[in-house]
Design brief:
With about 260 residues, this protein is α/β, with parallel strands linked by helices. Helix content is about 45%, strand content about 15%. The protein is globular, with a radius of gyration of 18 Å.
């Protein structure tokens, strides 16, 4: 399928690896030029060059922590005018409700709610002026079904979801399509860290911990960055113009819900 976005320009955050990389690769395959951001310069440059070689698109890299004001300023300066924004940031650490204090919640809100909002406020007005834009916020399945040990993430990402629900409907008349993509378990560093944590807590091997979690997914496996990226690219395409303010769950059927 031709996604109809060849020649567009996208900012993809946290895109040197994992789900962000999957989104960057899929957009590049569709002919989109990229601004890629991540904290680690070496991994970012390696991924960017692989994408240039594979797809022949223009790729600008910005090694910066986008969750900080200084990092966002650098990313936005390098981005210039973009047509597509994919927000993404690693989730806060797991724990129990008794572990967290106010500072922990502020840090989680800064990274997983206020940073995407700041990027939206900076870039979406230009999209509205030009009459076309796409925003995909990578959130989490925890918005749909809270995960007890991820209370910080549950809270921050639910806040972003509420903000997007109202904002998406305000910018839709100007041709800007804004939605959220909710990943379940995918084969990423984040999943590996959670498996390692479960392994330590339960006194089992990491492989056993992964097998336990895979058994909770109807498809019997973790998702891949490639299929996640393909879904994101469709949400950024010309074909998604009637999809407004939605939360797209991509979890292999693990969340047992009707709606």
């Amino acid at each position: 399928m031709d996604l109809g976005i060849r020649g567009k320009r996208a900012l993809v955050c946290a895109s040197s690896k994992g789900l962000g990389r999957g989104c960057a690769e899929a957009l590049a395959q569709a002919g989109v030029d990229l601004v890629m951001n991540a904290r680690g310069a070496e991994a970012l440059e390696t991924t960017a060059q692989e994408i240039r070689d594979a797809h022949g698109v223009e790729v600008t890299t910005v090694a910066a922590d986008v969750t900080t004001e200084a990092g966002r300023a650098r990313v936005l300066e390098a981005s210039g005018q973009v047509d597509i924004l994919v927000t993404n940031a690693g989730g806060p650490p797991p724990g129990m409700w008794t572990d967290w204090d106010r500072d922990d919640f502020i840090a989680a809100l800064d990274a997983n709610m206020l940073t995407p909002i700041a990027l939206i406020k900076a870039l979406v007005p230009g999209m509205c002026e030009r009459g076309w834009g796409r925003v995909v916020n990578i959130t989490s399945v925890s918005v749909k079904a809270p995960i007890p040990v991820l209370g910080l993430s549950n809270s921050a990402r639910a806040g972003l979801t509420g903000y997007v629900a109202g904002t998406a409907r305000q910018v839709a008349p100007q041709g800007v399509v804004m939605n959220n993509l909710q990943p379940g378990l995918h084969a990423t560093d984040r999943a590996a860290a959670l498996d390692a944590g479960a392994s330590k807590a339960q006194g089992i091997t990491v492989e056993q911990a992964q097998a336990q979690r895979e058994a909770t997914i109807p498809v019997g496996r973790y998702g891949t960055r490639q299929e996640f990226g393909a879904t994101c690219a469709f949400m950024c395409s010309q074909h998604a113009g009637f999809m407004i303010g939605q939360n797209i769950l991509l979890d292999g059927g693990a969340t047992n819900t009707t709606m």
